[in-house]
Specification:
The chain is of the alpha/beta class. It has two domains: about 190 residues, P-loop containing nucleotide triphosphate hydrolases (Rossmann fold), CATH 3.40.50.300; about 55 residues. Helices cover about 45% and strands about 15% of the residues. The chain has eleven helices and seven strands. It has a seven-stranded mixed β-sheet. The protein is globular.
């Protein structure tokens, strides 16, 4: 075999096996996105979020998550948190808002977004974060699993940490529309077809039990829906009379067939556009 052929083979192997990933400058940003192939943490220059005070109708969950996050940022014991419930009720928004509020208190807390598809790589990410002088919130949005999905096993590395244990400077916050992270009909189906129904889905269902905090988000009332919109209007300088806002907002929700924080924000964006107000 010629030297040129050996050189080409060596170069191909180097491309297939890139150099070990090195940690970024964590001081350069407050938030990062975890990517794989190749592994890297991409800094986020500006996090898209709303102020904590504008999140109406979820006071108990909001305050509980804020307390837990503040404890964690101070180096005190804290729990992983599962935020579950109705669509559009601010589950992901409250995570980002709480992160901003804790940072405003002087804690250099970092937020890392982790996609569900990248869960198999979480061990490499944890090894990277372990021992660094920062506190990290891993954020996995819209988390759920199907009956043949093995990604949930990787999630246990964050929740339990295996033989090494979860790094003391890492906590996981996940959002899901499902309390047990898998569809109810799938749970019932596996129970009905299993030899031992009690154990059929125990491994997957018990995954949600590994979150120390379960924070429920439920459909909002009409008063909360209107209060959300009024809060957005006041915060961004959109002037509208209460009776006009009420009539238009109720008509908007009727056309959407639902009422939530997301619908409230969508109505507000339409209203701000019609009023000629720029929203940043």
């Amino acid at each position: 075999m010629s030297d040129d052929t050996l050189t080409r083979i060596a170069e191909a192997l180097e491309r297939m096996s890139p150099a070990p990933f090195s940690a970024p400058d964590f001081a350069s940003a407050e938030a990062f996105i975890w990517h794989t192939a190749p592994d890297r943490l991409e800094p986020v220059t500006q996090v898209a979020r709303v102020d904590l005070d504008l999140l109406v109708g979820i006071n108990r969950s909001r305050d509980t998550l804020l307390t837990n996050t503040t404890q964690f940022a101070r180096g005190l014991p804290a729990n992983n948190a599962l935020l579950w419930g109705a669509r559009g009720m601010g589950k992901s928004s409250v995570v980002k808002a709480v992160h901003a509020a804790v940072r405003a208190e002087g804690h250099d807390l970092k937020l890392i977004e982790l996609q569900r598809e990248d869960l198999p790589s979480v061990g490499r990410l944890l090894n990277l974060l372990r021992g660094t002088p920062y506190q990290f919130v891993l954020f996995c949005d819209d988390l759920s699993f199907s009956h043949d999905d093995e990604h949930y096993k990787s999630l246990k590395a964050v929740l339990d940490g295996g033989i090494e244990g979860r790094p003391a400077n890492v906590v996981l916050y996940a959002t899901s529309n499902r309390r047990h992270l898998m569809p109810r009909d799938m749970i019932e189906n596996e129970r009905s077809t299993a030899i031992n129904p009690a154990e059929a889905v125990e491994e997957k269902v018990s995954l949600s039990d590994r979150f120390g905090l379960w924070l429920g988000f439920h459909p909002c009332s009409q008063d909360d829906y209107l209060a959300m919109i009024r809060g957005y209007c006041d915060a961004h300088g959109v002037e509208i009379a209460d009776d006009e806002l009420r009539a238009e907002a109720i008509e908007w929700q009727a056309t959407r067939g639902s009422r939530s924080g997301r619908v409230a924000w969508q109505f507000f964006m339409d209203l701000a556009g019609r009023k000629g107000v720029t929203v940043k």
